Structure formats: structure tokens, C-alpha cells
């Protein structure tokens, strides 16, 4: 195993322990609202501190981009961290959340871990070496068409101006599929695309730490991830379409049509 992946796994498991230890006390946790409907708790901060500490102990010169504490350091190695993806779920005791850690080297995704501490599912990938779930190789699904597919998505709960865009894509896609799920943790949704539990996924307005690890997992599992506007940098764009390579084209076309209908009205 790549030594940097090893550190990412150690960091993710330690953060997972912090999260699980606090689970029974969620209703007593002090919670702040960073912006409308965007919450952060002590658990997010403690989990992030443990991750950063583990990484910097091993690689003191590496740079960090973390959801709660922002960026620190400058290096060609940059760790992109979401200490608790699915905070709203966690705060409600809704069992769908994860730790997400990725490493970029010279701006290219290199290592990825997404850890679901409740199910003890550890998704990991190293660039060029495939993707695993608990050490077993994973692949994206083989479904060739939207017909019969299961898609994941996220609602634009922070930004009201995106609701129209979102509803239009949903209106177009939903009737073509076997179902659409909104589980509330984008990083896990992407991990589920990587292991074939979901055939595809779309969401607007994600942040780099929601996407980074999941993007590498999907690519290493034989899938594809792209942006709605065709932008090259998926992490910066945040408007994401992902899926197996057969389905991605159909999914992208339908989403683009839905968005262009909206623009022309
Ligand atoms: C959120 C979750 C959610 C997605 C949001 C993210 P957070 O992350 O991934 O599923 O819809 O866009 O911000 O805030 O719980 O880390
Ligand atoms: Ca997140
Ligand atoms: Ca988070």
C-alpha cells in the first residue's frame, strides 16, 4: 500500500472514532450555523483536528485544505479533507455520514479514502492502482441506460437560487430511472457510484472536500466524473455528474437539456 494512503486511512479511522464516540450525545452538542442550513459542531472540528494532526505528524511540510479550518501551508502535496460529510444527518441521528480525505499531488488526485464509521466501510484508492472497499476491489456498475438505473443526488438546501435548476434536472431524470436517492452525504454517494450501488449521481454547488476523494475512487473503479458546464477542474466547479462510462453520456445530455430549457424560458 502507498505510505500516504496508509496515513490517510489511519487519519480517517481516528476521525471515525471521534464521530462514533459523540454519537450518543448529538442532541447536547453545541452547533453553529455557518450559513443558512450549513451546520458545524464540535465533532466536525475535533474530527478535523485529529486528521490534520495525523497527517502533519507524518508529513509536516504538506499543505492542507480542510472544510472547517481552511488552507494551511504550501506544498505540491495538498490534503483535501471533509472531517464529517453529512453533518446534518449526524446531528439528527440519521445514520448516513462519512469521513473523506484525498491527497492531490501537483493538482492531480493521488490518494483517496472515504470511511463510513457506522458500517465500518472503508473505501480507498491510489492513482493507477484501482479502488477498494475494505480491501476488496470495486468497480462501477455495468448498467448501460438510465432505464432501470438508481441515481443519487443532493438537494440545493443552501442556495435557493439553484432550486429551479435542480427541479428541472430532477423532472427530466426521475421518470427515466428506477429511482433517485438523496441520502445526505455527497462523499458517500460518490463512493456508492464507485462500488456500483448507484449507477450515477448529480449535484450542484459541492465543495472541493465533498468531491475530491470520491472523484478518484470513481475514476479508479472505472467510472467517470465530469462537470455540468464542461469545466476541467471538477473540484472547483462543484456542479458534478458522475457515473459508469456507459451511462455518463446519457446522463450528461439529459442534464444539459434540462438546464438549457430553463435558460431559454
Ligand atoms: C454536505 C453533504 C450533502 C450535500 C451538501 C454537502 P457537509 O456536506 O455532502 O449531501 O448535499 O452539498 O455540503 O456539510 O455535511 O459536510
Ligand atoms: Ca461535505
Ligand atoms: Ca463536513
What are the SSEs and their pairings?
Blueprint: H1 3-22, E1 31-35, E2 38-41, H2 42-58, E3 63-66, E4 70-72, E5 77-85, H3 87-91, E6 98-105, E7 108-116, E8 121-126, E9 131-133, E10 136-137, E11 150-153, H4 163-173, E12 179-181, H5 186-194, E13 200-203, H6 208-220, E14 224-227, H7 234-237, E15 240-243, H8 245-264
Residues 82, 85-88, 154, 184-186, 203, 206, 210 line the site of D-MYO-inositol-1-phosphate (IPD).
Task: Estimate nothing, just give the exact number of structural domains.
Answer: 2
Label the overall shape. Answer: globular
Strand fraction: 25-35%
CATH class placement of the largest domain:
Alpha Beta
Q: What level of helicity do the residues show?
A: 25-40%
Order of helices and strands: HEEHEEEHEEEEEEHEHEHEHEH
CATH fold-level label of the largest domain:
Fructose-1,6-Bisphosphatase, Chain A, domain 1
Major β-sheet annotation: 8 strands, mixed
Name of the CATH architecture of the largest domain:
2-Layer Sandwich
Low-confidence spans: none
Radius of gyration, CA atoms, in whole angstroms: 18 Å
The hetero compounds bound to this protein are:
D-MYO-inositol-1-phosphate, calcium ion
Amino acid at each position: 500500500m502507498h505510505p500516504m494512503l496508509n496515513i490517510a486511512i489511519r487519519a480517517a479511522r481516528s476521525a471515525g472514532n471521534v464521530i462514533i464516540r459523540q454519537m450518543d450525545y448529538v442532541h447536547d452538542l453545541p452547533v453553529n450555523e455557518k450559513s443558512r442550513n450549513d451546520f458545524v459542531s464540535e465533532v466536525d472540528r475535533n474530527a478535523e483536528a485529529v486528521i490534520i494532526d495525523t497527517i502533519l505528524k507524518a508529513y509536516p511540510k504538506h499543505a492542507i485544505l480542510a472544510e472547517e479550518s481552511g488552507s494551511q501551508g504550501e506544498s505540491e502535496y495538498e490534503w483535501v479533507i471533509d472531517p464529517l460529510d453529512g453533518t446534518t444527518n449526524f446531528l439528527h441521528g440519521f445514520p448516513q455520514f462519512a469521513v473523506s480525505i484525498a491527497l492531490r499531488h501537483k493538482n492531480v488526485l493521488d490518494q483517496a479514502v472515504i470511511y463510513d464509521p457506522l458500517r465500518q466501510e472503508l473505501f480507498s484508492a491510489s492513482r493507477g492502482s484501482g479502488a477498494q472497499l475494505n480491501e476488496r476491489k470495486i468497480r462501477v456498475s455495468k448498467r448501460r441506460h438510465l432505464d432501470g438505473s438508481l441515481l443519487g443526488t443532493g438537494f440545493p438546501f443552501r442556495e435557493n437560487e439553484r432550486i429551479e435548476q435542480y427541479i428541472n434536472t430532477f423532472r427530466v431524470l426521475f421518470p427515466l430511472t428506477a429511482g433517485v436517492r438523496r441520502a445526505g452525504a455527497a462523499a458517500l454517494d460518490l463512493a456508492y457510484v464507485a462500488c456500483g450501488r448507484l449507477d450515477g449521481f448529480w449535484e450542484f454547488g459541492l465543495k472541493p472536500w465533498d468531491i475530491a476523494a470520491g472523484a478518484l475512487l470513481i475514476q479508479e473503479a472505472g467510472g467517470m466524473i465530469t462537470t455540468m458546464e464542461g469545466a476541467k477542474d471538477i473540484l472547483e466547479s462543484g456542479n458534478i455528474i458522475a457515473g459508469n462510462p456507459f451511462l455518463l453520456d446519457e446522463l450528461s445530455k439529459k442534464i444539459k437539456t434540462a438546464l438549457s430549457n430553463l435558460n431559454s424560458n
